[in-house]
Amino acid sequence: MKILTMVFIIFFMLLQSCSKQDEKSADQNEKISQKESGQKGVGKKEKDQMPRKVRVREIKPETLTRKIFLNGVIEAQRDVTITTKTTGEIVSINFDLGKFVKKGEILAVIEHDLQKNALEQAEVSLRQAELNHELRKTIFERDSRLYENKALSREQYDVSENSLRTTELALEQSSTALQTAQVNYDNCFIKAPFDGVIADRPVQQGQYVTIGSPVARVVDTANLQVIVGLTQKDLLVYKQHRKKDVDVIISELLTIPGTVVGVGDAPDKKTSLYSMKITFKSMLDDENRRIIFPGMQIGAGIKAEVFSDSFYLNRSEMRLSGKDYFIFVEKEGKAVRKEVEVLTDAGKEWVVRLKDKPEKSFRLIVSGIEALNDGRAVEIVEEE
User: Fold this and answer.
1) Range 253-278 burial, b when 16+ CB lie within 10 A, else e
2) What is the bridge-based pairing of β-strands 378-383 and 52-59?
3) How far is CA 203 from the centre of its chain?
4) Same domain? 140 vs 117
5) What is the pLDDT of residues 17-65, one digit of tens each?
6) Same-domain pairing of 241 and 341
7) What is the pLDDT of residues 85-117, one digit of tens each?
8) In this predicted structure, what is the pLDDT of residue 26?
9) Domain check: are 157 and 178 in the same one?
10) What CATH number is associated with residue 158?
């Protein structure tokens, strides 16, 4: 019995010892858990206070011009079909399709033997008339002195004066006849009216032509134009600012300057658009060949509104608060909020300006702006 009692007492003491050990272990685990929990809370707070890595782009506000973009087809300012001014057989042709010709270059020749003979005869007649006039002029000067000295009668003086007037008239007629003969002769030589390219050749050598027969079509490929149509809204914007300088857009990589030379006051009845004529010069490649021709489709960027102290932004680089847009700029390692005024949202890029005092330049934060707030520390990792 004593032995059984002793065994029970020992077993009870062992249970008490295990219970205290478990409580001690639980207390230690709770302290460790609380410590770990506290460490995690501090880490998140420290993380929020760390500088946010951002990319920036330098902005330099300037005077920007909004453009109205339109499309059109290139035309030549001068496109002329040359016709004959005399009749006869074409004895030579000195051009072909696509050939570039210079102003005054002889393109074709019409038989001209008769015209040449008439010109030579007119030249002889003019020289004879000049000699007769000089002789009668000398005689009249002598007769005038005699008449003043009363050595010549009035009747003789009048005869001498009439003879001089007759030679003057003959000289004038001979000069006119020579001019006519020269024109008739020149009309046998068909010349290019300006620098250009032959676009049509409707005649052949040996062909008999009459007055008004087409011989060649010459297109001025150096001086070009395009007619574009403006809506009423675009027309009002243009007339408000009246900027005549135009960017003629040939392709994504090629833009050349142009000039507005005229705007219609009435819209087209079919399209309700107002016509605008833009002129510009063609371009030459490295081998001195023209690379822009009539018939090509092009665009025209017409300068309209002008904005001072402004700059371009993508929509993704701004944030919206109510009806107001704002941006973040980097200053002394911090993000500074700046409200902007949207001047125009036409096209891929918006034209904006700072609402407060203009700055000569600043660094715009272009990435990570969704998680920024005013005064947040930032670290620049890339500058565009």
Assistant:
1) eeebebebeeeeeebeeeeebbbbbb
2) parallel
3) 39
4) yes
5) 544 444 444 454 444 444 444 444 445 555 556 889 999 999 999 988 7
6) yes
7) 999 999 999 999 999 999 999 999 999 999 999
8) 43
9) yes
10) 1.10.287
Per-chain mean pLDDT for the chain? 86
Reduced to 3 states (helix: H, G, I; strand: E, B; else coil), residue 138 is helix
Q: Same domain, yes or no, for 304 and 368?
A: yes
Residue 22 belongs to a domain: no
Q: 145 or 15, which is more confident?
A: 145
Supply the range of the domain harboring residue 149: 112-187
**Token output for 213:** 């027969």
Q: Which CATH number is 197's domain given?
A: 2.40.50.100
Closest to 312 in 3D by CA, of 97, 14, 63: 63
Residue type, 113: D
pTM of the predicted model as reported, rounded to 2 decimal places:
0.60
Give all strands of the β-sheet with 208-209 in edge-to-edge order.
Answer: 189-191, 106-110, 88-93, 208-209
Contact by Cβ (8 Å): 59, 364: yes
Count Cβ atoms within 10 A of the Cβ of residue 31 and give its class: 0-12 exposed, 13-18 middle, 19 or more buried.
exposed
Sheet arrangement for strand 196-200: 79-83, 214-219, 196-200, 100-101
| Residue 295 amino acid letter | G
Within this chain, do residues 201 and 326 fall inside the same structural domain, yes or no?
no
Least Cα distance to 70 among 281, 324, 246, 269 occurs for 246
- Please count the structural domains in the chain: 3
